[in-house]
Amino acid sequence: MTRDSEIADRLRSYSSGGTVALRLSSQEYADNYLSALGLTVRDLGGESNTHTIYVSVTNPASLVWSLLQALDIPSGRVSFVDAISHLMMSFQNVLPNASYVESPTMLEGIMLRIEYLLRKHPSQRNMVIVDSVNSLAVHNSPEVLSEFFHILVNNLKTRSVLTVLFTTSDAEGSDLDRILSLVVDESFSLGGGT
Amino acid sequence: MSGSRSGPVPTAEAAQDSRCVTGIEGLDNILGGGVPRGNMVLIAGGVGTGKTTLCLEFLVRGAEKNEKGLFISVTEASTKLLQNFATFEFFRPELVQHDMITIVDLPIIYDRLGLNREELKPGEVDILVRTIQDLVRESGARRVVIDSLTSVGFRVRSEEKARDFILKLGQAFSELGTTSLMVAEVGAVPGVHSLYGVEEAIVDGVVLLSNVRRRGDMLRVLQIIKMRGTVHSRAQYVIELTPIGMLLAPFLKGGRLETS
Amino acid sequence: MTTGDEPLLGIPDIDSGLTPYLPPGSLVVVVGTPGSGTHLLAKQFAQAGIGSAPVLYYTTAERTIDAQDAFRSFHWDPDAIRFGNLSDDYYRRVLEPELEVSRLRERGLRIEDLRNARRPEVPLAPYSLVGRFLNELANLDSPFRLVLDSLDFLLELLEVSEVVNLVRQIRSRTQLLGGKAMVTVQQGSLDSRSSAMLEDVADLGITLRSEPNGSTFDHTLEVRKLRNHPERTQIRRVSIDENGFHVLPS
């Protein structure tokens, strides 16, 4: 059994709700990132016809969407909450399946867009991916961030939604570790480490 | 006599009916289950804070539960309102066509009743109250919205008459078991939630909608300032007006705040 | 165009003694007792101007159609006259809506009353009877003959000073453009001070009287004032036939 298939099995066990962290090593980050997308949006999402709400903070939704298209993900299965394009003023490619939050500091806005999308897809199983915790930490204080994750994760847990938090393992600091340890049920590492 | 009780024990149904569930999920949660039935609530806020949308959703959610609603529009013509309402997914024109929601224009009421003076006389205030009461009774409305009370206030022109109008209207609605939302436009004066300042003291509840600036971000915020007859949260909530209705999220407290 | 020597009242025996002494723009004020024929004299004055200038006949005392029928009954052509009815206009614009308001207030408003109703347009200025009349007066730009029969209706609605001011405006416009104007009022409608004010504005003051005499009435026409010509004042016995007023032989 490969490391990825072990992770896939573990993720499957949270399909009826839970919070996991996928720690991506900065070494060969691009490969790890693609693996993470494959494991979550493609595999987990495809198996149980799960609708994915992808919160993009690191890269604009348009960029993530082009990667997902390369993985043959159908557009109806993914909705984006893009919290970075406004800030980066990169609106060349506005996606019909994306909802844009003005800034990654508007954490309530992110919560509300997730809520909106969950209500728009009430009959489907939903998965929320936050990409990434580190990018949110660049724009928000640890106090606000821990409050945000605490509220978001608990809210999603009560609704049996799987929440996947992407983090870059090498860049994590003690504050992020503390936040993740507070909200996460299990962590997995992609590209080295455990 | 310890342990003795007077009157019948309230049933679960009666307890449920004692609340007017707004149907705006987040709002009902922070109100402890809804607005106490018969309350008159001021929806106060500046321009573009979502007062009318909140009121509309209140009526639509009521109509979905078979509670009729009456929307008394002062500032916007009902035809224009309906065009605006059509942009919301939660609004269905059939609700108006089937009289589940009745929209009336107060300026037409003024005109038909000869209340055309710039300032209403005390007797005319009584006529207005009685007319609104008649319309509520005729429409069978259990939910009423007046958008806006401020515009009516410009006609009554004095604190005394404004107090008289709201007291009488509140009494009329209370007798009919009607829960009402009164829109109040507020300016930038902190702590003042109405035109004359007396309205907020008389009504049963005040819901404040405002824009709050936080580190350059502008957030729409809702706060229950008061609500008679229920224990409620006094915290601020960030709101979003979406096509499917108003959504609320807790206001995160980190960072420095300035009210815009 | 007025020549200045066209008939004044349409009563030749009286006109001949007055027209040479009246300036081109003049105001006639007629005061009459009930039944003395003020409305008829107003119509005779109007028809006397046909052909020499546009004739405007404003009535507050009768329906326009009745006034037109009265013209025809004396073989005068109402089609040559432009009619205005201030009381009809006031009724339509003010009294009728007030009646409807009273009805609705009494009965109570129903949703049906509000359906399909349009929001009232905000008027630039509230309705004013005098304002509307003055606006029409201001739109005149050539000599005219104008009758306002009578002031009594206006006196019920307005302050006396407003009515007198209106008469002053008529005279001023008459003087400016030339032509003749006549206003009528029932005797007793004005107190002595207001009467004096109106008298002051008049270039020609006429009083019509009707006194019982056995089984009939004696009609008299008094020229009680002719500006600058007090020697021309006179009292004449008049009678009315199918041609209107005419002077009875002394």
Question: How would you summarize this macromolecular structure in one to three sentences?
Answer:
The complex is a heterotrimer of chains A (about 190), B (about 260) and C (about 250). Chain A is of the alpha/beta class and about 190 residues long. Chain A is about 45% helix and about 20% strand.
Describe the protein.
The complex is a heterotrimer of chains A (194), B (260) and C (250). Chain A contains 8 helices and 7 strands, in the order H-E-H-E-H-E-H-E-H-E-H-H-E-H-E. By secondary structure, chain A is of the alpha/beta class. Chain A has a single domain (17-190), classed as Rossmann fold, CATH 3.40.50. In chain A, strand 3, helix 4 (85-88) and strand 4 form a beta-alpha-beta unit. The longest helix of chain A has 19 residues, at 29-47. Chain B has 260 residues and is an alpha/beta fold. Chain B has a domain at 35-206: P-loop containing nucleotide triphosphate hydrolases (Rossmann fold). Chain B has 10 helices and 12 strands. Chain B has helices at residues 12-17, 25-30, 51-64, 78-85, 94-97, 106-112, 122-139, 149-156, 159-176, 199-202; strands at 19-20, 35-36, 40-45, 69-73, 101-105, 143-147, 179-185, 205-214, 217-227, 236-242, 245-250, 257-259. In chain B, strands 3, 4, 5, 6, 7, 8, 9, 10, 11 and 12 form a 10-stranded mixed sheet that branches. By secondary structure, chain C is α/β, with parallel strands linked by helices. Chain C has a 9-stranded mixed sheet with strand order 3-2-4-5-1-6-7-8-9, sandwiched between helices. Chain C has a single domain, classed as P-loop containing nucleotide triphosphate hydrolases (Rossmann fold, 3-Layer(aba) Sandwich), CATH 3.40.50. Classes of the chains: A alpha/beta (194), B alpha/beta (260), C alpha/beta (250). Chains in contact: A-B, B-C. The A-B interface holds A 102-103, 105-109, 111-113, 115-116, 119-120, 140-141, 143-144, 147-148, 151 and B 214-217, 219, 238-240, 242, 244, 247-255.
